[in-house]
Amino acid sequence: MKKTTAALAVLAAAVAPAHAQFAKPEDAIKYRQGAFIVMGKHFRSLGDMANGKAPFDARIAAADAEVLAVVSSLPYAAFGPGTERGANTKANPQIWQKTAEFNKDADDSRAEVAKLVAAARGGSLDAIKAAFNPAAKTCKACHDSFKDSDAR
């Protein structure tokens, strides 16, 4: 687990200034979509345990938490200028028109995901259950406001 945490910390440091690393808007779109896919997989894994859809395994929960700890902050750097348009993006143009609201929703989500990460790291199913729904609500709120249901 310590090796995983160290590797994820290195990854986070390497991609922190990600917005400067995109040669084209399409690269940023792919980057944020990939981060959301990875985030969703590990978030769902914790949710399945919290909701009794999968057996609780503290080791798996902690591993999911380690991934979420890093990946949950990655996609937001890839919402820069020029990334509002592109093939297969579901990003609602409101992101760029209501940037303060989008950033607040992203901050709220990251804060609740951090609580879920802490709960999962602690190894208590009850703590994960208590933290999961508030985190899920912040994800849903952002999706409701800033994600189009139809790809463009």
CATH C-level label: Mainly Alpha
* Helix and strand composition category: mainly alpha
Number of strands: 0
Q: Average pLDDT across residues? A: 86
Which residues sit in consecutive blocks of at least 5 with pLDDT less than 50? none
Order of helices and strands: HHHHHH
Structural domain count: 1
What's the CATH architecture? Up-down Bundle
Euclidean distance between termini CA atoms: 40 Å
> Helical content, roughly?
55-70%
**Strand residue content:** under 5%
Biggest β-sheet strands, sense, barrel: none
CATH fold name, please? Four Helix Bundle (Hemerythrin (Met), subunit A)
Give the C-alpha Rg: 16 Å
Full CATH superfamily name: Cytochrome c/b562
List the total number of helices: 6
Shape: elongated
Give a verbal description of the structure.
It is built from six helices and no strands. The chain is mostly helical. It has a single domain (2-146), classed as Up-down Bundle (Four Helix Bundle (Hemerythrin (Met), subunit A)). The radius of gyration is 16 Å and the shape is elongated.
Could you give a quick summary of the protein structure above?
The protein is mostly helical. The protein has helices spanning 2-15, 25-50, 58-71, 94-97, 99-122, 125-146. The mean pLDDT is 86.
SSE layout and pairing:
Blueprint: H1 2-15, H2 25-50, H3 58-71, H4 94-97, H5 99-122, H6 125-146
Helix pairs in contact: 1-3, 2-3, 2-6, 3-5, 5-6
Please name the defining characteristics of this protein.
single chain, mainly alpha, Four Helix Bundle (Hemerythrin (Met), subunit A)
